[in-house]
């Protein structure tokens, strides 16, 4: 699949809002038959335009009610240092999103933990990697919108 048309875009938008929509639901909303929606959905998945389907959980379900954004500046930009930091990020479950960025920070991390004690522990683990020159943390006071969807 090389191009997406208005039907594909509508299917993608609808699935982004609710990944549990059936092909019949999509059919009713898009104006194509259920079998056409099924073929298009499979094509979008195979083209790598749909990366997965996920449950959106309430923070208290996973005991991760505290969210913070952490800006990270590495101590050096060598390949070994960057690779070691990225390997840590990939394995630590408290880090839910990680972005390599431009500007003052090299990376921005979104983390979710139970509270200040767990945040302090994560900060210690991050510092313990020996890869970080500076950390700047901002605790989220209110979730307004997540994953493109207004917070509950």
UniProtKB/TrEMBL annotation:
Ranges for domain HTH asnC-type: 4-65
GO biological process, one term: response to amino acid
UniProt cross-references to Pfam families, sorted A to Z: AsnC_trans_reg (PF01037), HTH_AsnC-type (PF13404)
GO cellular component, one term: cytosol
Keyword terms: DNA-binding, Transcription, Transcription regulation
InterPro entries given in the database record: AsnC-type_HTH_dom, Dimeric_a/b-barrel, Tscrpt_reg_AsnC-like, Tscrpt_reg_AsnC/Lrp_C, WH-like_DNA-bd_sf, WH_DNA-bd_sf
Gene Ontology molecular functions: sequence-specific DNA binding
Domain of life: Bacteria
PANTHER family in the record: LEUCINE-RESPONSIVE REGULATORY PROTEIN (PTHR30154), TRANSCRIPTIONAL REGULATORY PROTEIN (PTHR30154:SF46)
Protein name stated in the entry: DNA-binding Lrp family transcriptional regulator
């Amino acid at each position: 699949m090389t191009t997406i048309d208005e039907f594909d875009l509508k299917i993608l938008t609808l699935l982004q809002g609710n990944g549990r929509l059936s092909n019949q639901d999509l059919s009713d909303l898009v104006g194509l038959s259920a079998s056409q929606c099924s073929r298009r959905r499979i094509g979008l998945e195979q083209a790598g335009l749909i990366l997965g389907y996920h449950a959106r959980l309430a923070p208290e379900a996973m005991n991760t009610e505290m969210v913070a954004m952490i800006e990270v500046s590495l101590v050096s930009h060598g390949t070994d240092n960057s690779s070691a930091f990225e390997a840590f990020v990939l394995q630590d479950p408290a880090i839910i999103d990680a972005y390599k960025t431009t500007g003052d920070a090299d990376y921005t991390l979104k983390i979710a933990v139970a509270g200040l004690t767990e945040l302090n522990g994560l900060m210690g683990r991050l510092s313990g990697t020996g890869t970080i020159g500076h950390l700047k943390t901002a605790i989220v006071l209110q979730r307004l919108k997540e994953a493109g969807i207004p917070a509950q």
